[in-house]
Amino acid sequence: MSTEKTSRYVRLRVEVVLEVEDADAVTGAAVRRIAADPGTPEAERAHAESAVTEDTAEALAYLVDPFDLVREVPGVELQQASWSSEPIDYDPDSPEWDLDEDDVDEDDAADGEEDARTGGIG
User: For 66, how many CA atoms within 13 A lie in the half-sphere containing its CB?
Assistant: First the structure.
């Protein structure tokens, strides 16, 4: 594989399902983080505190930072990140939640079929 044909950019997709055992602890941590940020204007701080207090998923989104996932990885620099959180109905026994099956679009499926035919050599 030559360097000219290989992109330096990689999209890493991560899906995490968390069980919130103590919503007050999550909310409290988010409120403390907001309060500890001296660069946040007062109006924005009030809005953020209201959002994390009303919605535990919002509090988690405020606490989880994708930069933390790659901070210690040598040779990479985070270029862009987006993330969200939402309450979900989760049943670990449901086939919907099989971690072995990724959400694959049609292009990826075609690439996977070709990789299978070529032994993974592109």
Answer: 15
